[in-house]
Write a structure and sequence with these properties.
The chain is an all-alpha fold. It has 7 helices and 2 strands; from the N terminus they run αααααββαα. Helix 3 runs antiparallel to helix 7 and helix 4 crosses helix 7.
Length: 148
């Protein structure tokens, strides 16, 4: 006689903690691989933040934003220079910073995780808050407008 419950036991093996752990590890590795250097471009970042803002980045607004102190002690130019096409220097530590403009630094804005990290950190240093999507798009539009 056919017993449908007898077939249920093998199916339970597919939901074992071991299989779930393996699948979770595989998903994590796939996600981590996607967030490595070279997973994006400055133009892709501009397009992403423009879409998030609901408007294209504005290079003119980005230039003004980049040079403004926003009520605090620092501006973006404090560390990245004016224009940010050469090496900068951290205002406190003196650590050398590579050029920020993508035309002068091919590695700029090519790693999504680093882009998110540095926008978050630098915006909090300059603005005492995170930058909005529109501010990020404007700054990226400005940086992409800088050419040799």
């Amino acid at each position: 006689m056919f017993d449908p419950c007898a077939r249920a036991a093998p199916m339970q093996r597919f939901t074992s903690p071991t299989l779930v752990s393996i699948l979770a590890l595989a998903a994590m590795l796939a996600f981590t691989s996607a967030a490595r250097a070279g997973d994006t471009t400055a133009t892709q970042q501009l397009n992403f933040w423009s879409a998030q803002a609901g408007a294209p980045g504005d290079a003119g607004k980005g230039r003004v934003f980049f040079g403004a102190r926003h009520g605090g002690e620092w501006s973006c130019t404090s560390c990245h220079g004016t224009p940010p096409t050469g090496q900068g220097k951290h205002a406190t530590t003196g650590k050398t910073i590579p050029p920020l403009a993508p035309a002068f630094n091919p590695k700029a804005f090519t790693d999504t995780a680093r882009v998110e990290k540095w926008f978050r950190r630098n915006c909090k240093d300059v603005l005492s808050r995170e930058c909005s999507a529109a501010e990020k798009a404007d700054v990226l539009a400005y940086l992409l407008s800088l050419q040799p």
